[in-house]
Design brief:
It is a single chain. This protein has about 140 residues and is α/β, with parallel strands linked by helices. Helix content is about 50%, strand content about 15%. It contains 7 helices and 5 strands; from the N terminus they run H-H-E-H-E-H-E-H-E-H-E-H. Strand 2, helix 4 (about 60-65) and strand 3 (about 75) form a beta-alpha-beta unit. About 25% of the residues are buried.
Amino acid sequence: MSELMAFAARSPALSLAFVGIACAWVIWEISRFRRGFRGLNNNEVSHWINRKDALVIDLSANNEFLKGHIPGAVNLAAAELNAAEAKSLKKDRPVVVYDRNGREAERAAATLKRLGFLEVAFLDGGYDGWVRESLPIAKGR
């Protein structure tokens, strides 16, 4: 402990930078926790599908969906994800959203959470990450 204090005394700029980064990281983690949804890896998504009977929503365009998607997923383009479309979905059923590369899905998860869905997540890495791990895919409708 005394060595740490000596280092802090010799390097105040580095010490302040470390404290600043640590505080920013804590604030980031708290904000991620409070948003009400989270990213899931491929194994966690498989668990949600198999054990929680999660609804899986593919946000890609229809032609991309037909080329390949996670088995059992429904196609709902990100632009259609609004209160009117979401009314037909059960809000108490767990929902996982994904897109091709994982960029749109987080925004869609936030939308679903705002619309009152209780358990929402998005697939980290998107469909491309799912395919990279050679997980099952379906084609067509």
